[in-house]
Design a protein that fits this description.
single chain; 342 residues; mainly alpha; two-stranded antiparallel sheet
Length: 342
């Protein structure tokens, strides 16, 4: 990594040191003579710093008219008013941290832009950011630890505008001053940032920067992207095979379910038929029983009528029972004539 981008937050800083903005002159005063080591910036503090820088940079009232010193006074005041339980920071600490964030996020943006341009097949945005971070770590020899800052800055109009303007290598006149592998360092502070030891040189033109970047692209990086794409394709192939196997299993299970449902319906139909046959048999038996009971009652009644002694009956009763007895005799004769075998 370029020497101008190392983190200076470990240097001793003044305890309780603050920066006050004057409404008239815009001057800053540092308070506290005792110097001690401050803690490193946390991810929360980085987020507050990035948001403070964006809010002051994009101020629609004073954005185009603020000078560098007054700009950073406003950024420091905005940061210290929003840092919550975290310690307040001096202007030097904040500008040094911003230079570090600017450099690291700028480098990562170059790797991410290259990943987006190559557009490996089957990779989501999250996959691309992970791959870009892996490329960053491989080339820069340290991990990219400011993904939280990049997520805040990447879609901001000011970032995008400055990136289009500054997306080129610094025109140092020699290869030793160019960033490793030709990845771009984007000066996101433009005219507002604190002075940096690597700034002040006129950048090369856009076409020259593109040619230098294309020439400096290493075969190792290209091979890594290719291997990553192949691994991704193989993963999708395996996933497709697993999907096909799962679909085949589902189809087989559905066939089994259909066959079981068919057998179940057939079994229910057979059971219903048996139930209907049993019910018919029961009804037939009840009808037969009722018929037998009726015949038994009729026979008993016929026997009672035939047993009546007509000589002991009154004239009218005698005529009535005599007619009944004659009917019973005729019915017996008729049943014998039409009985089985005749």
């Amino acid at each position: 990594m370029d020497d101008s981008f190392f983190d200076l937050n470990d240097e001793p800083e003044g305890v309780g040191g603050g920066v006050l903005e004057s409404s008239m002159g815009g001057s800053a005063s540092k308070v506290g003579a005792t110097r001690t080591k401050q803690t490193n910036f946390s991810a929360y503090e980085d987020n507050v710093l990035c948001k403070s820088w964006l809010e002051i940079s994009c101020d629609p009232v004073i954005n185009t008219g603020q000078r560098r010193e007054s700009f950073w006074i406003r950024v420091v005041n905005r940061y210290n008013s929003n840092c919550g339980r975290y310690p307040k920071r001096t202007q030097k600490s904040i500008t040094n941290r911003w230079d570090h964030i600017k450099a690291e996020v700028s480098k990562f943006s170059g790797y991410m832009a290259e990943m987006i341009r190559s557009n490996p097949s089957g990779m989501s945005d999250a996959d691309k950011s992970v791959a870009a971070a892996a490329d960053f770590a491989s080339v820069e020899k340290h991990n990219f630890t400011l993904m939280h800052c990049w997520k805040i800055l990447k879609d901001e109009p000011k970032w995008m505008e400055l990136k289009r303007k500054m997306d080129m290598l610094q025109n140092s006149g020699s290869r030793k001053d160019a960033p490793p592998n030709g990845h771009h360092i984007l000066d996101l502070d433009a005219g507002n940032s604190a002075p940096s030891s690597s700034s002040g040189k006129r950048p090369m033109g856009r076409d020259a920067a593109k040619a230098a970047k294309k020439k400096a692209a290493s075969s190792e990086y290209v091979s890594k992207i290719h291997d990553l794409s192949v691994q991704k394709i193989e993963l999708f192939k395996e996933t497709e095979g697993e999907r096909k196997a799962r679909l085949d299993e589902i189809v087989t299970l559905e066939k089994v379910k259909v066959e079981e449902a068919r057998e179940h319906r057939k079994m229910k139909l057979d059971i219903e038929r048996e139930k209907l046959a049993l019910e018919k048999r029961r009804l037939d038996m009840e009808a037969e029983k009722k018929k037998e009971e009726a015949e038994k009652k009729e026979k008993e009644e016929d026997e009672r009528i035939l047993a009546i002694n007509l000589d002991q009956c009154q004239p009218l009763q005698r005529m009535y029972y005599q007619a009944l007895q004659e009917d019973i005799i005729q019915k017996l004769v008729a049943s014998r004539c039409h009985g089985p075998g005749l």
